Amino acid sequence: MKKALIALDDTVRGRRAGEYAAGVVPALGDCELVLLVLTTGVPGTTEPAAPPEVHGDEDHHQELVQAETLVGEIAAMLRERGVAPERLQMRIKPVCRGVAQDIVDEATAAGCDTIIIGRSDASRMKELFHGSISAEVLHKVENQTVWVVA
To answer: What pTM does this model have?
Structure first.
């Protein structure tokens, strides 16, 4: 693995993917990481130090704050475990084409060979009828490995 995208969200499964990666990735040497949080209605940024200006209601502002906090927490966890800061990229982007497709698109654009994503805590029956983002990502990738973290 040379470059991995870690798909994060502010749920148990999203945090689990970041925590899992923090435990495994430092042992992989020079692997670069892209931490990605997709948001609804919030302009995208690749520079957490300069957050985008948000026009709209308080919910969107709160979503941006949560996304920045999550990315910061996972990045700190990775740095504590030996990942050099120059190997980390942090991205907060709006959902454009659907969460699963946006994850695959971002991984492809960033040159990632691996996607790390958390699996939903939904029951198997619910996933069968409603699907899951991790299952959609598995069906949409072409040249990446997908690690689905339970």
So the answer is: 0.82
Cα separations in angstroms, 120 against 124, 130, 134:
10, 11, 8
Q: Which two tokens stand for residue 15?
A: 């945090």
- Name the nearest CA neighbour of 70 among 78, 86, 137, 112: 78
How far, in Å, CA of 132 to CA of 125, rounded? 11
**Residue closest to 134 by CA, chosen among 6, 3, 4, 2:** 6
- The CATH code that applies to domain 3-149 is 3.40.50.620
Q: What are the residue ranges spanned by the domains of the chain? A: 3-149
At 55-105, the pLDDT tens digits run 556 667 888 889 999 999 999 999 999 899 999 999 999 999 999 999 999
Coil, helix or strand at residue 89: strand
Burial class of residue 34, CB neighbours in 10 A (0-12, 13-18, 19+): buried
Which residue, 97, 79, 80, is CA-closest to 133?
A: 97
As a dihedral over the C-alpha atoms of residue 48, residue 50, residue 51, residue 52, rounded to 10 degrees, the angle is -130
**Other beta carbons within 10 Å of 3:** 18
**Residue 49 has what DSSP assignment?**
T
